[in-house]
Structures are given as structure tokens and as C-alpha cells.
């Protein structure tokens, strides 16, 4: 596993401030001033020291994509006081790493994965937050459940012991077409709103599922405008990732 050290001269506190300023401007521009959109820092490909430096600079919410990396960085992230979210596709045979180090798995896209997480959490005597990943862009290459299935899966996952569905996550369309990207984010918001409405009627108990994890370095303004409660930012905080 080739993990990169932080680039020379990198100032994580300043980079974080710049991203938070973008978020605040986007909140104000969309009538959401003070809504507290959180910034999750995506630390994939960066080594444990770089990831821990971001946490110490105030970026306490960290996203890891690959469980091989989380195995390496998990202890350092925990020692630095991070809250770790899994944001990459999670294979069932890697679920134990997530249960060991993560506070939330944002990428639940199958009931069988959720069942495995639930069982491992019961064994570890812990609880775990999860989000349902939805493929709103319709691109075959993207992970996540079909939008029409999202509510049914969320309800099934919520019914499992030790798991709490805190919301929905998506990877947006990779495009500079604002309307097309925002259409996907609006779709995720509608799914979240449906989840909250249904639970008001008392049927499936999805009242905890209010989070919308959407938007990245390139398009976080569009995601905030569509209601994101959390944006996931890598390059804008860490700098460009080295080519794989
Ligand atoms: C890497 C990653 C991000 C951050 O992407 P940037 O373009 O570097 O901001 C966000 N979400 C997921 C799921 C990622 O894997």
C-alpha cells in the first residue's frame, strides 16, 4: 500500500478554512445561512501522519475509502480524535475493519452488507451509524442502490439491531453541467424527505435519516444549494492526489 506523505509546505488549517468559507458562502447564497453543513475530509491515498494532521487542524470528520488504508491509518486517526466515515465501496469480507474503526458507513448499498455489519456490531457490543448510498446519476459505473429502492432498503436496514440509518449519500454526476448535477442531488433530497415523512406516519421509523452526504471539491456549492448536510472534500483540503 503506497500512501503519500503530506506535501511540503501544506497548511491543513488554512486549507480547511478556505473550504469552510466556500461552504458558508454557499449556505448564505442558497438561503441556508447558519445551517451548519459539515465538512468531511476524504483522506484516501494520504498516509496516517497527513490524515492525523488534518484532524489536529480541526478536520475531525474524516472519510476513508479503502479498508486496506483504514487498517493502516485507523489507530492514528482514533488517537488524533477523528470521527471516521467509510465512503468507499465496502466488500462484506472487509466489514470487520469498518466495525473496528468507523463511526459511520456511508456506503450501505445492499441488505446483505447491512446484515453483516449488524452481526459484527452485536459481537463487538457497539452501535454503528450507516447511510444508504444511492446512485442518483444513473451511471452504470456508480455504486449505490436505485433511487426507487432506497426507501425500502433504508427501512430494512433500520430494522436491524445495532444499526441506525442517519441519512443518504451519493456520488454526483461527474459533469460541469450544473442543472444535471443538481437534478441528482435534488433527487437524493426528495428521497430523504420521503423517509422523514413516512416516519412521521409512524410506519418505518426513519426519523433519524436526515443527513444528506453529497458534494465534493468540485461541486460542493451545488450540493449545498440542494440541501447537503455534509460535503465530502478531498483535493480542496489535501491537495491533488498523486496519480494512481
Ligand atoms: C475521494 C472522494 C471524495 C472527495 O473527492 P475530491 O474531488 O477530492 O474532493 C468524496 N467522496 C468520495 C466517495 C470519495 O471517494
UniProtKB/TrEMBL annotation:
InterPro entries linked to this entry: Ala_racemase_N, PLP-binding_barrel, PyrdxlP_homeostasis
GO MF annotation, one: pyridoxal phosphate binding
Keywords, in A-Z order: Pyridoxal phosphate
CDD domains the UniProt entry points to: PLPDE_III_YBL036c_like (cd00635)
All residue ranges annotated as the Alanine racemase N-terminal domain in the record: 36-242
Any one Pfam family match given in the protein's UniProt record, by short name: Ala_racemase_N
Essential cofactor(s): pyridoxal 5'-phosphate
Residues with N6-(pyridoxal phosphate)lysine modification: 44
Known function: Pyridoxal 5'-phosphate (PLP)-binding protein, which is involved in PLP homeostasis.
Homology family: Belongs to the pyridoxal phosphate-binding protein YggS/PROSC family.
Protein name: Pyridoxal phosphate homeostasis protein
Amino acid at each position: 500500500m503506497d500512501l503519500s506523505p503530506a506535501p511540503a509546505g501544506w497548511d491543513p488549517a488554512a486549507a480547511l478554512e478556505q473550504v469552510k468559507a466556500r461552504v458558508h458562502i454557499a449556505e448564505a447564497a442558497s438561503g441556508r445561512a447558519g445551517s451548519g453543513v459539515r465538512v468531511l475530509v476524504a483522506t484516501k491515498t494520504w498516509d496516517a501522519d497527513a490524515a492525523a494532521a488534518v484532524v489536529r487542524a480541526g478536520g475531525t470528520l474524516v472519510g476513508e475509502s479503502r479498508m486496506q488504508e483504514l487498517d493502516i491509518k485507523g489507530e492514528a486517526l482514533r488517537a488524533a480524535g477523528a470521527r471516521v466515515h467509510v465512503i468507499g465501496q465496502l466488500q462484506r469480507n472487509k466489514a470487520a475493519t469498518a466495525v473496528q474503526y468507523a463511526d459511520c458507513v456511508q456506503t450501505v448499498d445492499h441488505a446483505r452488507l447491512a446484515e453483516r455489519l449488524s452481526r459484527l456490531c452485536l459481537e463487538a457490543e457497539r452501535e454503528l451509524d450507516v447511510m444508504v448510498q444511492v446512485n442518483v446519476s444513473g451511471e452504470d459505473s456508480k455504486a449505490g442502490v436505485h433511487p426507487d429502492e432506497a426507501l425500502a432498503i433504508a427501512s430494512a436496514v433500520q430494522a436491524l439491531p445495532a444499526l441506525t440509518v442517519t441519512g443518504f449519500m451519493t456520488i454526483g454526476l461527474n459533469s460541469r453541467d450544473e442543472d444535471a448535477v443538481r437534478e441528482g442531488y435534488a433527487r437524493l433530497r426528495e428521497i430523504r424527505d420521503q423517509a422523514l415523512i413516512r416516519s412521521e406516519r409512524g410506519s418505518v421509523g426513519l426519523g433519524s435519516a436526515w443527513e444528506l452526504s453529497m458534494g465534493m471539491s468540485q461541486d460542493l456549492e451545488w450540493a449545498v444549494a440542494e440541501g447537503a448536510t455534509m460535503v465530502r472534500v478531498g483535493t480542496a483540503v489535501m491537495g491533488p492526489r498523486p496519480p494512481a
